[in-house]
Design brief:
Oligomer: single chain
Order of helices and strands: EEEEHEHHEEEHHHEHHEEHE
Shape: globular
Number of helices: 9
Number of domains: 2
CATH class of the largest domain: Alpha Beta
Helix content: 25-40%
Number of strands: 12
CATH architecture of the largest domain: 2-Layer Sandwich
Length: 310
Amino acid sequence: MLPLVAKEFAGWTQVWAPAKVNLYLRVVGKRPDGYHELATHMLPLPVYDTILARMAPTLSLQCDDPTLPVDSTNLVMKAALLVSQRHAPDSGAEIALRKRIPHQAGMGGGSSDAAATLVCLNHLWNLGLGKNELASMALELGSDVPFFLGHGPAWCTGRGEDLTPLATPEAGLHLVVVKPSEGLSTKEIFARLKAKPMGAAWRADADAETGSDFNFKQAIAQSAQAVADTLRNDLEGPAVQLLPALANIRAELMAAGAQAVVMTGSGSAMVALAADATKAVSVGQRLMLARTPAGPVAVFVASTVPSNTD
């Protein structure tokens, strides 16, 4: 899934952009710059968008999802304009975005697309940009974007851009991701969050919370059951206030036999851990048939490959 790789395909340069899920997300506090300090685990998921690009006189974007903009408000176009203005002002490209990752899901589709665009245009325009320059531009585009330039599961701090590889259990993880049709706005979620400003009074509470981080990092290297006991997302409370049907999806997943459930990112997708691949398929099938207040849901079932930090 990671790292992102540019390949030639039928006259186009192509990069597959994977989704991600957060199995742990602690909001540390609100920074002086207005952003929120996070401690979170990100795991790439084998659900992909595709970025395609070929040489053209000017920059343009097309997308097979008519609900998404194709102007500079789309992160793909923002990434393309950034690369062009900084490193290739005389170059153009026709870019095509093929969407499979649902948006407003907390699955990182937009961030992954932006990272894939950086990699794609670096290859197409033969710029030879190194990892550091790509990572610098990625952070300008968004806090999650640098993760998708990495190599796999990671522990992320700061705004989410400080990455440390973090192994997953040798047996892998078996996940069921359920996305209701209604999405959630990250801005609205954080607006409802009562995060303490980062300062002297905040520090004692923050230090007390680091045990939770330690427990998760220990668990993620051990077993799925250990991970299940340490899942956390501080944004889930505000998300359920905005979309109460998430509580029903959680209940359906647990009733179907999930080991544990957590919301990913700022939602609205919920992630369930299953004991094995067969159980994950069973849970996924039940949710596809479930009648919840959220209405129809999209269901993704995936088993991760084992990872290490070597």
